[in-house]
């Protein structure tokens, strides 16, 4: 590819080795979550949300369990301002939820921000200014001192305004915006200058938010930057380190996770990662990653289909079918070996009554996020195998196919899907199975059969059958004896003028629990003189007649290959 030499790694590693985080292998507890859907997410939408949409989204975020929500940039527009006023005036902010607002370090913007906040019980005022080399040179055309002055003057002004509203519990947040494009020593110094002004205490901690405004490095560099800041910030015990990764390199989640290991206490992100450009870090993935490691994420995504639906409605964006945890296809297995393992894993789990989730290929139980196995997990197309197909026939219709029959049925379904070039629904699978194997009475149809037990000199389990059979319109009434019911039927068939060439290979039966009216299913395999095998399935209220139906089905399938002749 041309032009690669236009680029160079433009990140700023810390001036000392910061690799303590490497020694940690897991995150022990959920970070503090702050949703920025209504601000960073909103500012990236083609059409920002209306006031009513923001209200509904806010209430949904509260329902999911967010305790901190950045509700907007009140100085940005009338809608933003009025939205905050509505939340406050109509008392729509629950007591345990803190709203957060963003402001630039400009006098009229700060003033407007505090006006918008008047009467709120608690709020985080979030001040930002860009600190990166690129922005200093190109946008602000300012020295480090001048950039620091933007931050500190804003910090002072905010502190002054906050003092005017003693009834509000204010917390302050500062972001050295474009942190990842900033020399770490400068990021440290500017944050410390702000911290020194705000003088955090245990009762009034300060949030220092370290954004990967644009992600510029691999995640381990970001983690080292966070560790560096964590080690060098003033008054660290009263400072909450917040992370705000974006996803330019596709590593937003990795940045956040490693950043937490490195000292991050709080995460700012959005549902499914909506936000500027490639988006903010996806909080759904982060929270569910914790959940899948047995950590309570402190957010409730147990109804993921609703989360997807609300997100799509508010943002007018689509959740990608492969989006972790939320995508339509993330619990679906089409391929044979995956289906086989999942079906066996599910069975294993049921039989052992396990609480711990260990099913192969499924990182979490889809039911925990409100997804159902039916139609969600095992889906059939031409890549599928016998395991998955047998699983669907058993799960949805109660047919527990004998093992040797599964391969044949599997290949048949693959073939149908391949030819039609489409996925097969559970109903289509059952219809094809039923049409091919179950109670297949053409041209042979045993229309009546009554059995009598007979005692022979050897045993008393002999059977006599009086049977009426219709073979392509020819009706025969025959009586025959056998050492069991099936054997009696075999012998009766052989008494008709037709030459039946088959040997009974296997017979299994079971009660049907899921299926319609029939109570029993029987499976019979016969073999012709050339060694070709034919399966048939019979269902009936009466298990004996189910087995007769299975035999007739197998015979009719054989007859399709080579016609029985008189
Ligand atoms: C990484 C982020 O997501 S940051 C948040 C970004 N979000 C938004 O910008 C959405 C809301 N913003 C807005 O509605 C508008 O930009 C407003 C209302 C904030 C400001 O509007 P305006 O003043 O009309 O325009 P604009 O944003 O272009 O202002 C640019 C000026 O602000 C300065 N500026 C930009 N950021 C800051 C800051 N954080 N602190 C102080 N000054 C700043 C610029 O240097 C520029 O200065 P100049 O006029 O001397 O050249
Ligand atoms: C305002 C800041 C925190 C921001 O959104 C970013 O840097 O991405
Ligand atoms: Mg951002």
Explain the overall architecture.
Belongs to the alpha-IPM synthase/homocitrate synthase family. LeuA type 2 subfamily. It is an enzyme of class 2 (transferase). Its EC number is 2.3.3.13. One of its GO terms (cellular component) is cytoplasm. Pfam families: HMGL-like, IPMS_D2, LeuA_dimer. There is one protein chain. With 566 residues, this protein is of the alpha/beta class. The protein has 17 helices and 14 strands. It has helices at residues 37-43, 51-64, 78-89, 107-117, 133-139, 144-163, 184-198, 219-232, 252-261, 283-291, 304-315, 336-352, 386-397, 403-420, 426-437, 485-494, 543-561; strands spanning 32-35, 68-72, 98-104, 122-130, 169-177, 206-212, 239-245, 266-269, 444-454, 462-471, 474-482, 503-511, 520-527, 533-540. An eight-stranded parallel beta barrel has the order 1-2-3-4-5-6-7-8, surrounded by eight helices. A three-stranded antiparallel sheet has the order 9-10-11. A three-stranded antiparallel sheet has the order 12-13-14. Helix 13 packs across helix 14 (403-420). The radius of gyration is 35 Å and the shape is elongated. It starts with 31 loop residues before the first strand and ends in a 5-residue tail after the last helix. The mean pLDDT is 96. The structure holds acetyl coenzyme *A, 3-methyl-2-oxobutanoic acid (KIV) and magnesium ion.
Brief rundown of the structure:
Pfam families: HMGL-like (PF00682), IPMS_D2 (PF22615), LeuA_dimer (PF08502). The chain contains 17 helices and 14 strands.
């Amino acid at each position: 590819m041309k032009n690669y030499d236009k680029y160079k790694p433009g990140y700023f590693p810390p001036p000392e080795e910061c690799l303590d985080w490497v020694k940690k292998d897991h995150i022990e507890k959920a970070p503090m979550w702050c949703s920025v859907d209504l601000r960073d997410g909103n500012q990236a939408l083609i059409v920002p949300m209306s006031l009513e949409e923001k209200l509904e989204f806010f209430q949904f975020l509260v329902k999911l369990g967010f305790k901190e929500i950045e509700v907007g940039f009140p100085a940005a527009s009338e809608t933003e301002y009025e939205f905050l006023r509505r939340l406050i005036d109509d008392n729509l902010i629950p007591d345990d939820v803190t709203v957060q607002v963003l402001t630039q370090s400009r006098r009229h913007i700060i003033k407007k921000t505090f006006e918008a906040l008047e009467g709120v019980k608690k709020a985080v005022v979030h001040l930002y200014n860009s600190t990166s080399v690129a922005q200093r040179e190109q946008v602000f055309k300012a020295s480090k001192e001048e950039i620091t002055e933007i931050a500190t003057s804003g910090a002072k002004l905010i502190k002054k305004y906050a003092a005017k509203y003693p009834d509000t519990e204010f917390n302050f947040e500062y972001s050295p915006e474009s942190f990842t494009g900033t020399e770490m020593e400068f990021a440290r110094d500017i944050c410390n200058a702000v911290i020194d002004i705000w003088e955090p205490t245990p009762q009034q901690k300060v949030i220092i938010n370290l954004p990967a405004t644009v992600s510029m490095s691999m995640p381990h560099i970001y983690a080292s930057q966070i560790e560096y800041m964590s080690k060098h910030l003033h008054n660290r015990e009263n400072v909450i380190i917040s992370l705000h990764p974006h996803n330019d390199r596709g590593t937003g989640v990795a940045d956040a996770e490693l950043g937490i290991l490195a000292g991050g206490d709080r995460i700012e992100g959005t549902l499914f990662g909506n936000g500027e450009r490639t988006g903010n870090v996806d909080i759904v993935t982060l929270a569910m990653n914790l959940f899948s490691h047995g950590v309570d994420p402190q957010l409730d995504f147990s109804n993921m289909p609703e989360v997807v639906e609300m997100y799509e409605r508010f943002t007018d964006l689509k959740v990608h079918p492969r989006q972790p945890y939320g995508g339509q296809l993330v619990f679906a297995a089409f391929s044979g070996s995956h289906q086989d393992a999942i079906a066996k894993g599910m069975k294993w789990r049921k039989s052992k009554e396990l609480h711990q989730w260990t099913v192969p290929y499924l990182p979490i139980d889809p039911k925990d996020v409100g997804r159902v196995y039916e139609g969600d997990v095992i889906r059939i197309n031409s890549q599928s195998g016998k395991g998955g197909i047998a699983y669907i026939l058993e799960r949805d219709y109660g047919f527990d196919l004998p093992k040797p029959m599964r391969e044949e049925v599997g290949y048949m379904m693959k073939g149908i899907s391949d030819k039609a070039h489409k996925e097969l629904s559970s109903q289509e699978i059952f219809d094809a199975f039923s049409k091919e194997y179950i109670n297949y009475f053409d041209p042979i149809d045993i229309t009546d059969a009554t059995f009598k037990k007979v005692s022979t000199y050897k045993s008393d389990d002999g059977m006599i059958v009086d049977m009426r059979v219709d073979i392509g319109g020819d009706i025969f009434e025959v009586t025959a004896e056998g050492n069991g019911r099936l054997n009696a039927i075999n012998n009766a068939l052989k008494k008709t003028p037709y030459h039946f060439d088959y040997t009974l290979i296997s017979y299994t039966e079971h009660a049907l629990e899921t299926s319609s009216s029939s109570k029993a299913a029987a499976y019979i395999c016969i073999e012709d003189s050339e060694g070709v095998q034919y399966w048939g399935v019979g269902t009936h209220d009466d298990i004996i007649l189910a087995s007769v139906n299975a035999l007739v089905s197998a015979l009719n399938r054989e007859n399709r290959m080579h016609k029985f002749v008189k």
